[in-house]
Design a protein that fits this description.
The structure is a single chain. This protein has 3 domains: 225 residues, Rossmann fold; 56 residues, Orthogonal Bundle (Helicase, Ruva Protein, domain 3), CATH 1.10.8; 98 residues, Arc Repressor Mutant, subunit A (Orthogonal Bundle), CATH 1.10.10. The protein is 44% helix and 9% strand. A 3-stranded antiparallel beta sheet has the order 3-4-7. α9 crosses α11, α18 packs parallel to α19 and α18 crosses α20. It is elongated, with a radius of gyration of 31 Å. The chain binds glutamic acid. The site of glutamic acid (GLU) has 8 residues, from α6.
């Protein structure tokens, strides 16, 4: 790694050296889709520039910490192929990459800020802060810390109400407006402004740094050249710029990605939209390449072909090769699941059958529809059924229901209500004729099965194919809709088909 030539870029025109970008999720629940969105754009740039991509776990909020979260972040990013060069599980030159393991790193920075008068201790209890806020709101004053502790010694402060034994450390935001960097350059947005901050806490009473201090220290220590994060952090940037300035550290470049929005333009949140959860896409049976393609189109223009037409199908390599921050739109892109469904169908149909079968097996194992180690027979059945379902699905999850009849024992097969609701009055006659014809099929193969049933039901009983084959489908698959009937019957085998027809006949 070439740290010697590290030179942060603060404008689009500055020369770009070896870049180092990071994604810094907080393990506070299952991962948000925004983590993948930021990672994709980070990596596109990093791979184009030949730099490094760092995964840092920002676990300083011990109250919101969730144990499984970190593993879920690793799993989902890997599933998407958004792999990192340095991280908690991989190590790297700036390890450790988990903030909770870096507490000693932050200490000297805090001490220096205190010593140089840029920070001060605050002993106010949460109750006092709540009262203060209430008062400010009532009087319609700007909310923010009132500096009650500033300039007081511990002794002086302890004599006053609302005193807590364990202090926090706050930044002393300069009073003069021109000393607060509220305007800065963003690679996506150009020159932007953010409000003046109040005296932010940088070290908490539990000894952990807050995000604001940790992010600045770590981005510096880890030689991050470009800080890419969600738009919601724009308002924090002035605090970070102040810290860089006070500590005499070079500033990285900033790019604030647009917030992803629901169709009604509201911010996409895990509480309200299942698609905000990264794991949801895997659970639903989206392919990683479809989700990558989808994310690459969010706030980013499609490829324009030589003849001027637009193309939306793209992959990571192409996205990365052409990537440029100034093409990212700052306007919150709408998360259009219909488009993702369309992309998923496209990728499902582009996969070679064997590969699609592997994905279906992996999906069904994860979903619990197949055992952890499927039997050779189960694998054979999925492989054989894959070409039958490929044209009919836009999600891998749809294969669970479609293939269930193959993995159900004849005795356990049940017939769906919607498949038995509108049976023709002569269904028993149809089934009897089908059984006789099927017993006599010389070679159990879908063409011969089709021919035998056609002769027995369509020709001899003079039924329309839909009327004739509907009950047969219900009998052998238990469902109204299934993969192509004759191919399904071939797969199932003659004995099974006859056993199922007999079972169905008994219910009539
Ligand atoms: N830990 C922050 C988050 O989860 C990261 C923000 C940043 O990238 O600076 O959103």
């Amino acid at each position: 790694m070439n740290t010697a030539s590290y030179s942060p870029t603060t404008s689009l025109t500055a020369p770009i050296g070896p870049v180092r970008l990071r994604v810094a999720p907080s393990p506070t629940g299952d991962p948000h889709v925004g983590t993948a969105y930021v990672s994709l754009f980070d990596l596109a740039f990093v791979r184009q520039q030949g730099g490094q991509f760092v995964l840092r776990i920002e676990d300083t909020d011990r109250v919101r910490y969730v144990d499984e979260s970190e593993a879920q972040i690793f799993d989902t990013l890997r599933w998407l192929g958004l792999d990192w060069d340095e991280g908690p599980d991989k190590g790297g030159p700036f390890a450790p990459y988990r903030q909770s393991e870096r507490l000693d790193t932050y200490k000297p920075y805090v001490e220096r800020l205190l010593a140089e008068g840029h920070a001060y201790y605050c002993w106010c209890t949460p109750q006092r802060l709540a009262l203060m806020r209430e008062k400010q709101q009532k009087l319609r004053l700007p909310t923010g810390y009132d500096r009650f502790c500033y300039g007081k010694t511990r002794e002086e402060r302890s004599a006053l109400p609302g005193f807590s034994e364990t202090p926090v450390v706050r930044m002393l935001i300069p009073d003069a407006d021109d000393e607060v960097p509220t305007t800065f350059t963003d690679l996506i947005r150009g020159e932007i402004s953010a409000p003046r901050p109040d005296d932010q806490v940088i070290l908490k009473a539990d000894g952990f740094p807050t995000y604001h201090l940790a992010v600045v220290v770590d981005d510096h220590e880890m030689r991050i050249t470009h800080v890419v994060r969600g738009e919601e952090w724009i308002s924090s940037t002035p605090k970070h710029l102040l810290l860089y300035r006070w500590l005499g550290l070079p500033e990285p470049a900033f790019a604030h990605m647009p917030l992803l929005r629901n169709e009604n333009k509201s911010k996409i949140s895990k509480r309200k939209n299942p698609a905000a959860r990264l794991m949801w896409f895997r659970e639903e049976g989206y392919l990683p390449e479809a989700l990558i393609n989808f994310l690459a189109l969010l706030g980013y223009p499609p490829i324009v072909e030589a003849d001027g037409t637009e193309r939306e199908i793209t992959d990571f390599a192409e996205f990365s090769a052409n990537f440029s921050w100034d093409k990212v739109s700052p306007v919150g892109p709408i998360f259009d699941l219909k488009k993702l469904g369309w992309l998923n169908g496209h990728y499902i149909r582009s996969l070679p059958t064997g590969e699609l079968a592997d994905r279906i097996i992996e999906f069904q194992v994860r979903a619990g529809a197949l055992p952890t180690t499927p039997s050779p027979e189960q694998i054979r059945l999925v492989r054989a059924a894959t070409p039958l379902v490929a044209e009919r699905i836009s999600l891998l999850s749809e294969t669970v229901d479609m293939m269930a009849f193959l993995f159900t024992a004849d005795a356990d097969l049940t017939f769906d209500e919607d498949a038995t609701a509108k049976l023709a009055p002569n269904t028993a006659e149809i089934v009897d004729a089908a059984v006789a014809a099927l017993a006599a099929v010389p070679e159990w193969e879908h063409g011969a099965i089709h021919q035998a049933l056609n002769t027995a039901l369509v020709d001899e009983l003079a039924l329309k194919p839909k009327i004739a084959f509907g009950p047969i489908r219900t009998a052998v698959t238990g469902k109204r809709i299934s993969p192509p009937l004759f191919e399904s019957m071939e797969l199932l085998g003659r004995d099974s088909c006859l056993a199922r027809l007999a079972k169905f006949r008994a219910t009539l």
